[in-house]
Amino acid sequence: DQFEEWLYKFLREMQYKNLEGWVRDKQVRDTGPYINGTYYGSHPAARIFYSPEVYHWLKGNREDQIPDGATIIKEMYDPPAARYDGKTEAELQAVLSEWTVMIKDSAGAKDGWFWSYYAKGQKIDTNAYPFNYPNSGFGQYCVRCHASAEKEFTFSSLRNIQGEPGEPVIYRVDDSWMTEKSAQVAPYDHVAQGAGADAAKVAKSKPVIEANAEFLKTFNAIPRVSYRDVEPIPPLTYDHVVAGLHAPTQFVTSDQCLSCHGGLSDASPFGPAMFLPPAGGQKGVNLSPYGEWNWSMMGLAGRDPIFYAQLESELNLHPTHTDEIQNTCFTCHGVMGKRQLAIDHPGETFEQDIVYTTTPGDPNHKYGALARDGISCSVCHQIVNDEGPLEQIFTGEFEVSGPDEKGISSIYGPFDKPATLAMESSLGMKPVKSDYIKSSRLCASCHVVFLPIYNSAGEKVGEDFEQATYLEWLNSTYDNELRAHTTDSKTCQGCHMPGEYHGRKLAFRIATIQDQTYPEAEHLAPIADITVPIREEFRRHTLSGINIFALEMFNQFDNILGVRKTDYMTGSDSGLLSAIAESNRLATEETARVEILKVEHNDEQLSAEVKVTNLTGHRFPSGVSFRRAFLEFKVIDAQNTVVWASGRTNSLGIIVDGDGNQLPSEFFEDQSYQPHHQRITRQDAVQIYEELVKSPEDEFTTSFLSLKCKVKDNRLLPKGWTRKGPPGFKEAWAHATKPAGKAWDDAQFLDGTGIDTITYVVNLPRHVIEGGTVVASLYYQSIPPAYLKDRFTSANGKSTRRLHYLTSHLTLAGTPIDNWKLLIDSKSQRISP
Questions:
Q1: CA-to-CA distance for 437 and 414, rounded, in angstroms?
Q2: Of the candidates 715, 742, 824, 725, which has an alpha carbon nearest to the alpha carbon of residue 776?
Q3: Are 421 and 530 in contact, with CB atoms under 8 Å apart?
Q4: How many CA within 13 A on the CB side of residue 479?
Q5: How many angstroms separate the CA atoms of 558 and 101, rounded?
Q6: E strands, 202-354, where?
Q7: 3-state secondary structure 166-198
Q8: Is 380 in contact with 293 (CB distance < 8 Å)?
Q9: What is the pLDDT of residues 799-808, one digit of tens each?
Q10: Is residue 265 helix, strand or coil?
Q11: Phi and psi at residue 392, in whole multiples of 5°?
């Protein structure tokens, strides 16, 4: 901050003009053409000043390296340069208001430069809400173009400099700029993305949201949490770990990837790129790898407030295993921080407090930044195929590539002949083709979790699978790893990384760098080294599940959870809303289907058969054990009044009986719960698809380290499931994918079709229901009421209080999770006379 303040003063006062040995360009020059009122330059019109070190390097035929301290200052003017013909120095100074700067400092980052943008009136960078992308620093987005230079990240040329022979490159400039009404300057990249915005000007105080009184009444185990008592997660402006020059780190934060693998909007002269412009009243959509990964729960894993509350509960319930719990949980949720710490300091525990470390001089600062960045780009794209037993990679224990003898790490992608120069020179990472990146096994490591089981005394009493999503996929018709490929075969990526957008097949360049599509630049690297081909097999990085509850927390409490809702590269603020919409689309179109097979009635009774079909490649729900789906079945009379219902809820998503009273089974009163049903005849009986587990002390629990005995598991099985699994499927894996409880009594449930059929029998006279309707709806809850109650009764630390504040203030009206439930599918049928 101190250097930035000094630098801005240095620029504002134009001190560089009076320094001995500095040279400058011959005149203000264009960086691209100006046609029909639009400017297509990579920067505005510019005049560059060079420190003696840069000038001597240029005079030396650009050999060797530019020494540290060398500086390049670019004065920037409204284009085109023709506006300034004949202007005096005083006249130029009067209209000059912005600069970009390069300062050589090889120890700062792999690319070797400190980058800065300054506009008059601009304050120094802060970490204040709304967490703007910084204007200065190492590892800045500027390298996405400058990495295409043949050497030293600069296109500087002697022909531009005063007193040297030759003339600058001349671009086509028509006369449209001379008519003010027609002059529309397409902003160059830096300004287009709002990098110069002053946080103090654009920050708006978050509106005060009243707490949900009913929520506070129901979940009252801890006192009401006020906003001032919430400890926020440090903002992503602190999540900045760059590749070093001499000591490359294994991992870097995603801000090192966003500049090339983010989109460009149609407001940029070089866009749109991986971006669909606004159309039909809809906002533009950023479909770039960074743009969509950023709002996935993988991208948010290091900030997930539900995870931190769960972790706090585990530490409170099992205090004798704190080191093991933290290391295990952060193996996935804070994978980069945890792994980098283990590389740098073998044997040290990754403690949760590291996540809150923001002091740059603190040795844990780097690890906290890496952990908060979640399951980031340099995680999945460094995973190697270990080709060993599957058990070796369970619970996040995958292998990653490491730097070679030259300090270059391999970054794996699915495509042939990737352009490598930009990444290799700026990050010390080389793109390499790997088919493994397309395999489901890549996902297995974090989606098969095998944990010890402890009793309340801290004694280990067993071990079991806490979640087994990948094993469920293996034991389905979609598997293509243990059995031959069929028409049903589909990988994890096939569903969670679609190659289309609302039916539109996508084909993009997967990186935006300075290449042959930009205006001519001197000393550009060979075109073959910087050409990014259009990829017909482009896959979106949506990585969607259907945890809209968590996404809405990030949407409504971005200030507390430390995220930037406006994308830097595109300027779009629709990324998170698009993620919620995509998650809802996945829920309603690709998760499960409800059908009413038949409705019959006589004078005294109605019966209806409802079928639910799992459309996913694993159980539904899958993953952590506390998620649930449930069926609501309603009988509605001709006056549109509900006269009978199973599975109705109140406004908090708590299932109630016919009188509106919450069911005792909702919070396991007297150890009651809803078993798997084949036939439902009462309004207090509900078909809930869930896994219920008891602790070693025989209490229902959602503690991952207390999952001793499955009482119930009737989560919908995937199509193709069998009791033993395919050839090569181990007995322990088969056990992990089996139902539990009364589901074993339902032969149809176990038949491998992924279907469950329930018969509802309702004792109502014909005259009550004649002319009415039956409605069957399937709902989903990623954080059901019993789960929240467990969190608020098992701990009372900062993470639990944060979750209590978020959930008690969450506004659900108008969202897909209104009344604390997400609709998956619904069907209705008229009751015939």
A1: 6
A2: 824
A3: yes
A4: 25
A5: 31
A6: 275-276, 285-286
A7: CCCCCCCECHHHHCHHHCCCCCCHHHHCCCCCC
A8: no
A9: 999 999 999 9
A10: coil
A11: -65, -20
Determine which helix (DSSP H) or strand (DSSP E) holds 803, and give its type and residue range. helix 798-809
Query: Which whole-number Å values give the CA distances from 309 to 102, 420, 653, 706, 718, in the listed order?
Result: 43, 41, 20, 16, 30
**Rounded Cα–Cα distance for residues 505 and 319 (Å):** 52
Strands 755-762 and 679-680: parallel
pLDDT beyond 60 at 186: no
CA distance 793 to 789: 6
Q: Token digits for 34?
A: 């100006």
Q: What is the dihedral of CA 63, 66, 70, 74, to 10 degrees?
A: 70
Q: Check whether 206 has a pLDDT greater than 80.
A: no
Whole-Å CA distances, 611 to 410, 502, 596: 48, 27, 6
β-pair partners for 761: 607
Whether omega for the bond prior to residue 130 falls within 30 degrees of 0, making it cis, is yes
pLDDT at 190 over 50: no
Cα–Cα–Cα angle for 370, 273, 371, rounded to 5 degrees: 5
Nearest to 819 by CA among 701, 693, 657, 654: 654
Q: What pLDDT does residue 204 have?
A: 34
Tokens in use for 154? 């600069």
pLDDT at 403: 84
Contact criterion met (CB below 8 Å) for 617 and 718: yes
How many CA atoms lie within 13 Å of 380's alpha carbon, on the beta-carbon side? 26
Distance in angstroms (rounded) separating the CA atoms of residues 625 and 6:
54
Prediction pTM value:
0.95
Q: Which amino acid is at 39?
A: Y
Q: Which amino acid is at 822?
A: L
